[in-house]
Structures are given as structure tokens and as C-alpha cells.
Amino acid sequence: MPHMKHLAIIGSTASGKSNLALNLAQSHNAVILSIDSLSIYTGIDIASAKPSKAELNLVKHFGIDVLRPDETASVFTFIDEYHRACTYAQAQHKNLIIVGGSSFYLKSMLEGLSPIPTITDAVREEASHLLMDTREAHRLLTGIDPATMANITATDSYRIEKMLHLHLETKLPPSQWFAMHPPLPIIKECPILNINIERATLRERISVRTQLMLGEGLIDEVALCEQLYGRSPNSMKAIGMIETLDYLDGKYSKEALVQRISTHTAQLAKRQLTFNTHQFNLTANKSINELTSIGQALLQ
User: Fold this and answer.
1) Mean pLDDT computed over 261-272
2) Domain residue spans in the chain?
3) What's phi and psi for 62, nearest 5 deg?
């Protein structure tokens, strides 16, 4: 069986990553793993700029429509999807293209994660009582492991729960467990292509895309998600979702809604650019046209 080739495509939001991945996947016999923190949720199609149903039908995708909006995605969610994608691609003799704006997940898979012990029901029950007051749980863990908890805020209930589970199960400070169990890479070899796009061009693309989202029914989509799941899930705090909720509250006009989403998306794009150029050993950092040729050569 031919060796399955990996390729990762990263870049700022609205830079054209999904189209590049789709074109390369079609021409070079690949499946796609999406590492997007919003596309993972069902029912959040417009706000996430998720590929259309027609596009999803052209190429097998993973990492899309996996969780309900009231569930919480984590790096382990995407690791599971990566393993599913690999199993499928190997069985079908296909390559694998990883694409998405949440490149933190790619970095985590390349660098690896420390193995976590199985958490018993008794520990989960004990933790659930302590987590009724997350700030108190944070203070408890800070007394046990100040170094680890210095990087976790008192409102980050997800990470507090994970550290609490780990401590209660192992009877060790989390930092000691991690020192004893160093991370193992999930992905061992993967060229990484970063889309380099002019900032003025990107701002214009973001503005146009935001207008299209409103035209496609963003407000109705967010209103339905709120009706079904409320406002507390992490997914409801994403860019596009939270501004639309403010609009529904009457805080500003539709014109102001477009401006706010565009501004916040542009700020996100700037953060993504900084992260991608400083956190990865990039194979190439070029325009989409140049990356198309490079991607084709890498997948041959």
C-alpha cells in the first residue's frame, strides 16, 4: 500500500485555506481534517464559515459536525478526529490534508501531550462536588501546584476540572505527573504551508465575508442556537456568535453588527498570523498560488 502523505495548511481566517485544501484534496486523492474550533459543532454553519454541503460531499471531511454546541471541544477531540481520519485514509489509500485556523491544535499534535490516566467514577464524583465552586477549586489546586495553576484562570472551569481529575486520581501535583510522563508526538512528520496574504486584501475579504454571512442568515442561526442551548456554552462566545447575541439584545444596529464582527475577525487574524509565524517550522510561507504548486509537489 502506498505511504499516506500528510500536509497541513494554516493561515489567517478568510485567507482561503479551505479552498486550497479542497482543490489539493480533489487533485491528489486526499481526505481533509478540519482543525477549526467552531466548525466542529453541528448547527453552527454560517458563523464558522463551514464548507458547504456540496463541498463536503466532494471530499471526505473529519473534524466537522462532531459535537453539539453545548459540548466542549478540546485538543483531545481533534486528536480523536485525527486518528479517525488516518484510519480511513489508510484503508482507502488516500493522503491526509489538515487545515484550519485553530492551529494551536496542530501544534499540540506535533509536540504531543502527556498521557492522562483513566479517571474513575469515584474521582469524577468527588471532583463534581469541588467544582460546584470553581474559584475555590482553583484556590485548592493553586495551593497544591502553584506553577501549573498560574497559567489557568479561576474562570477556566474546563482546565480546572482536568487538573482536579488528574490530581485526585494520581495524588500528585499535575506538574509532577507531567514531568514523569513527558509528551509524545501524535503527528511525526507533516510539511506545513502558511498562507501569506496582504493585510489590506485580508481586511477586504473579511468585510465581504461578514456581509455574506449576514445575507446567508447568521442572525437566525445564532438565535436558533441560543433557543436550543442558551448562552453559556463556549461555542456561543465565539466571534460572530457573541456580537450577534448583542445585536439581538438591541445593543446596536445591523450596520454596527457587521463592523464589530469584521473588526474582531481582523484582530483574530492578526493573532493567528503572529502565532503561525512564530510557533511553527514552516515548510513555506507564500501566496495561495505559490502554495498550490508546492502542495501538489508534496502530495505527489
Assistant:
1) 96
2) 6-112+186-298, 121-180
3) -125, 160
- What confidence tier does 1 reach under pLDDT thresholds 50, 70, 90? very low
Q: Which of 173, 239, 205, 181 is nearest to 11 (CA)?
A: 205
DSSP string, 219-237: HHHHHHHHHHH-S-SGGGG
**CA–CA separation, 89 and 145 (whole Å):** 42
Give the per-residue pLDDT at 200: 96
pLDDT digits (tens, 9 = 90+) for 199-245: 999 999 999 999 999 999 999 999 999 999 999 999 999 999 999 99
d(CA 143, CA 140): 5
Class of domain 6-112+186-298: alpha beta
84 CB burial (10 A radius; 0-12, 13-18, 19+): middle
| Residue whose C-alpha is closest to residue 78's, from 116, 46, 108 | 108
Q: In degrees, to the nearest 5, what angle opens at C-alpha 244 toward C-alphas 276 and 154?
A: 60
Task: Report the pLDDT value the prediction gives residue 50, as an integer from 0 to 100.
Answer: 96
Give the Cβ contact number of residue 118 at 10 Å: 6
**Cell numbers given for 235:** 461555542
